């Protein structure tokens, strides 16, 4: 789709912390840092601050600092949920419960410290209540330009290079010699026809974590042994292509509310078709209500925020032993050093919890109970240390590459997963919000011990 992930994500609009962007420069990417990127962040955004009253401990409007820093003229309209977007009183109950268990509030997570709990910034037009993303913010306003042509339904199949600038034996040129001049493209509806687009200035490869390495390997850039096995001429032997694939981990946990719970959840629209029909009419007429809503709040934290849940010293000691025995590339070692430092220093978020006042999200074999209401948390381990790969196994450019995330390469990942989901569930079952929960549904209440959670999280 046009817009890629900017048109698919949760409506959550979050930046990382300063240290994360600075680490890009540490890895050799000169000029990439928090200070270098902040002016562009501000240029992108047009922020309408949120309300203070929804969250305990919030002492100023979320987004206000962003506005004061100049984020007021960009094409991406950014706002926050409120009463007009069915925020529900459950948000306040959930926040207070987490504050009582060691969490803290951060009204300005876009300012270089992304940790803490806050109302979630969301890229939604506050008047029209439609998602703002790269297509309607950047592309659609300039579609009438004569030098712009958007071709949908086509896929890049190969990079094209300046043959005149290369030696007669093209195999294994240096990176400095390699000049991309365009792309070849086609469609899976016609496997034999190819077209090409030439560039006058530069070619930007931005096809995502899975498609970018696939396109490079199809073009002869990658591990020579792999390319030889597929009879692809190696232009540039670059073994790191497709390596170091990392993915955050997520577990959804839902809870059945008691029938005398004091507040409505979004399940009322599932339970009552008449209310659902009225809600859609409200949205089409006023752009308010449940159909203008999104997840209103989240929290992201270093492990040190919850010392009763995580013994970081022990986790890191075991990680060091396992990593020392692993066979990894030099760039992977450098990345490990940075990632380990972020973990130990305790200033960069490692885990996340998102709150939704509804059920039916957690993977399970049960249907939601008719007429009943639920609460759900999405629980994430944001920065696992395990790393996998994505590579081609065919020269067919329309076939999916083989992705192997190599989950649980290091035991820290599975241990943090079990500890975090166990702790997050304990928080949800504590007051004030816990008094209204009848029982956990998925996973069931029988999952209690750390060993049981360790068995549950890979499922």
Could you give the topology of this structure?
Blueprint: H1 18-26, H2 34-44, E1 45-47, H3 64-68, E2 76-78, H4 90-99, E3 116-119, H5 134-139, E4 155-161, E5 180-187, E6 190-198, H6 208-218, E7 221-222, H7 224-229, E8 236-237, E9 243-245, E10 249-257, H8 267-271, H9 273-286, E11 297-301, H10 312-324, H11 330-345, E12 351-356, E13 374-381, E14 388-391, E15 402-404, H12 411-428, E16 437-442, H13 450-456
Parallel strand pairs: 1-2, 7-8
Antiparallel strand pairs: 3-11, 4-5, 5-6, 9-14, 10-13, 10-16, 11-12, 12-13, 14-15
Helix pairs in contact: 10-12, 12-13
Mean pLDDT: 92
What spatial order of strands do you see in the largest sheet? 3-11-12-13-10-16
Helix content: 25-40%
Distance between the termini: 30 Å
Strand content is 15-25%
Comma- or semicolon-separated keywords:
single chain; 459 residues; alpha+beta; six-stranded antiparallel β-sheet; three-stranded antiparallel β-sheet; 29% helix
């Amino acid at each position: 789709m046009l817009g890629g992930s900017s048109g698919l994500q949760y409506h959550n609009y979050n930046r990382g912390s300063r240290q994360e962007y600075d680490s890009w420069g540490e890895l050799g990417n000169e000029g990439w840092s928090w200070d270098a990127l902040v002016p562009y962040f501000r240029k992108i955004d047009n922020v309408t601050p949120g309300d203070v009253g929804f969250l305990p401990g919030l002492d100023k409007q979320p987004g206000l600092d962003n506005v004061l820093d100049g984020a007021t003229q960009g094409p991406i309209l950014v706002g926050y949920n409120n009463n007009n977007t069915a925020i529900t009183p459950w948000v306040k109950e959930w926040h207070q419960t987490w504050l009582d268990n060691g969490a803290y509030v951060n009204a300005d997570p876009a300012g270089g410290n992304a940790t803490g709990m806050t109302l979630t910034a969301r890229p939604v037009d506050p008047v029209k209540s439609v998602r703002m993303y790269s297509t309607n913010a950047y592309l659609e306003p300039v579609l009438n330009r004569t030098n712009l042509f958007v071709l949908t339904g086509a896929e890049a199949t190969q990079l094209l290079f300046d043959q005149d600038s290369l030696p007669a034996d093209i195999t294994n040129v240096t990176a400095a010699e390699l000049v991309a001049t365009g792309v070849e493209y086609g469609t899976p509806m016609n496997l034999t026809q190819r077209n090409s687009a030439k560039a006058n200035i530069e070619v930007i490869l931005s096809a995502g974590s899975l498609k970018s390495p696939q396109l490079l390997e199809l073009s002869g850039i990658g591990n020579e042994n792999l390319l030889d096995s597929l009879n692809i001429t190696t232009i540039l032997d670059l073994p790191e292509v497709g390596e170091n694939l990392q993915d955050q981990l997520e577990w959804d946990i839902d809870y059945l509310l008691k029938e005398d719970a004091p507040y409505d959840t979004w399940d009322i629209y599932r339970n009552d078709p008449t209310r659902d029909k009225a809600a859609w009419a409200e949205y089409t007429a006023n752009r308010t209500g449940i159909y203008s809503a999104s997840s209103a709040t989240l929290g992201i934290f270093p492990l040190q925020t919850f010392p009763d849940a995580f013994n970081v010293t022990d986790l890191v000691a075991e990680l060091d032993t396992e990593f020392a025995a692993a066979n990894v590339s030099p760039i992977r070692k450098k990345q490990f050093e940075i990632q380990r430092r972020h973990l130990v220093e305790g200033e960069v978020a490692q885990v996340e919890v998102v709150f939704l006042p509804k059920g039916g999200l957690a993977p399970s074999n049960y249907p939601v109970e008719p007429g009943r209401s639920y609460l759900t948390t999405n629980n994430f381990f944001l920065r696992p240390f395990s790393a996998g790969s994505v590579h081609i196994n065919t020269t067919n450019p329309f076939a999916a590459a083989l992705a192997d995330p190599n989950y649980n390469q290091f035991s820290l990942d599975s241990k943090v997963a079990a500890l975090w989901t166990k702790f997050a569930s304990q928080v949800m079952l504590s007051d004030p919000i816990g008094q209204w929960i009848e029982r956990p549904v998925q996973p069931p209440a029988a999952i209690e011990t750390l060993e049981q959670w360790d068995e549950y999280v890979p499922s």
